DNA sequence: CTGAAAGCGCTTACAG
DNA sequence: CTGAAAGCGCTTACAG
């Protein structure tokens, strides 16, 4: 499928199609739309010479890569990209607002076969530009509700939050603190809502003073932990929105001379490899990060000519009980 | 610099140059050599059309990415690549023997601007192929002595091992265990040699039973820790070749009911962000991973027309004393 | 806003 | 083993 083919079908000349692809301004809106639609329908790809073929590249775009959490995703994407001989291009946005205006042009210039966005937004404009160049893409753990027609991959965060909180309730805890991730992120909100749902189902009142928010990193767990433990009536258990936050809570507890789980039970979320080596080994909600990454990669790289309609997939989470939880001291 | 220019200078036709670049067999050895030399000297890069310019891609090749250690390198490379608008392609070899035969062809096909190899070997064959396509490359923490003419980046590992061991000696320890990384890796051997040098300088005999080797990951620290602590005359301090191994040692100590640093002092190597959040906060040797990565990226991406001769650079390490070390119990 | 013409860098098929 | 010729996909400069 070359520029000439598209031009013929659109009833325009090759140069005009070239201009549309390169985002030149001097094209009539109606023409641009007609050409973009054909480009998309035929899955046009630039070929940089006689028989270049696809570049064999997936773009993996993070907002931050401070947590080992990101590495799990990298491992998953790398492994499935390798299976089909593709390379993985990593970039870091440092901004949850999503990729900038010229991002699509940059990745198109390197002939990327598809893009995976992690934890960011995707504007309608970026979405349209990707579609015009038929670069498939998926959002993992989107920040906010993605626009209609955007495929996404996540985990059953609500269920995870429910299971974690239920576990603490079953051990006999009644004052259970929660330190969530960024409140704007769907995955984070769902975990908090699962926590609330478990409390409400058990007839335990939800105390807003027991709910804090952070950024999924160690520091926010430490700060949130100190805050909750300074309360006049402190919690006997804390559910953290991520394993890193849980590590921060452990640190805060130790600094205050509290033993875990004797004086304070702690539950994390993610089940990073490190959770097993923490002290005490961390009870946490396992989300299959590598599988999520592999699925996103396949969605983006596999032509699957029939099923091009965008999907929203949530993979199952599972509570993993280790040694950081026990009945509260009073019992 | 186009194929036509090279052809003119080599006194051959453009198709012949094209054949050399694409590794076609039907070129006389003498011609091939002459063309390859010119290609290299002029830093020829394929341009996939009128004004494609460089692809803006750095290949970052790991043998494994299980440790958060790898993420620090990724962060450093990504940050400096971004400065010059380049993307970072990550791949994982799962083999310390280095990249396979067709690796150079694959990265050349995507027009990579340079390659950074982490912790692997680079064969003379791969080296020659990279040179023929003038793809600059650097090895970070090479496995074994790299061939002559290969640029490398590392840290002052020997000094780090010396400083860590000296610190333990100054605290009064005399039986100091060491759990090193893979004995084949230069960075690992240098740390062990620094340990030996410190002991010898202090007049403390080196006991081979106190030296173990592993793979830089948590598991090998745990296993090595248990082994050392099972000795009839166990060490009062352990120096681990990496922070992850030190975490494993902490785990082994706790499983045996030993307190750190009361019953056992532990020193790591790397100073990962996690070292600060460990319990107790880990005394460790800081190596500037992000700076090492940034330097490697600049070496590979910066044309620096004058200074093309390969360099070997070691960045300084520094002991960071936290709370996992103290005088031995007897004192 | 559009396209015929010229041009770019590269590759292929084939004659020698 | 080599290269003149033809061709590919794309872009640019410019006339209308």
UniProtKB/TrEMBL annotation, chains A, B:
<dbReference type="GO" id="GO:0003677">
    <property type="term" value="F:DNA binding"/>
</dbReference>
<dbReference type="InterPro" id="IPR010982">
    <property type="entry name" value="Lambda_DNA-bd_dom_sf"/>
</dbReference>
<dbReference type="InterPro" id="IPR046335">
    <property type="entry name" value="LacI/GalR-like_sensor"/>
</dbReference>
<keyword id="KW-0238">DNA-binding</keyword>
<dbReference type="InterPro" id="IPR028082">
    <property type="entry name" value="Peripla_BP_I"/>
</dbReference>
<feature type="domain" description="HTH lacI-type">
    <location>
        <begin position="1"/>
        <end position="46"/>
    </location>
</feature>
<dbReference type="Pfam" id="PF13377">
    <property type="entry name" value="Peripla_BP_3"/>
</dbReference>
<dbReference type="InterPro" id="IPR000843">
    <property type="entry name" value="HTH_LacI"/>
</dbReference>
<keyword id="KW-0805">Transcription regulation</keyword>
<protein>
    <submittedName>
        <fullName>LacI family DNA-binding transcriptional regulator</fullName>
    </submittedName>
</protein>
<dbReference type="Pfam" id="PF00356">
    <property type="entry name" value="LacI"/>
</dbReference>
<keyword id="KW-0804">Transcription</keyword>
